[in-house]
Amino acid sequence: MSIFRSLVLYTALSLTATAAGATDKAALEAMREGMMQKLVIHDAPVGGSDATFTDPDGGEHSLADYEGKYVVLNFWATWCAPCRKEMPSLDRLQADLGGDRFEVVPVATSRNPLPAINRFFEEEEIVNLPILLDPDRALAADFGAFSLPVTVILNPEGQEIARLVGDAEWDGESAMAIFNALLKGAEG
Question: Which of the residues 10, 11, 110, 145 could staple to 75 if both were Cys, CB 3.0 to 4.6 A apart?
Answer without folding.
Answer: 145
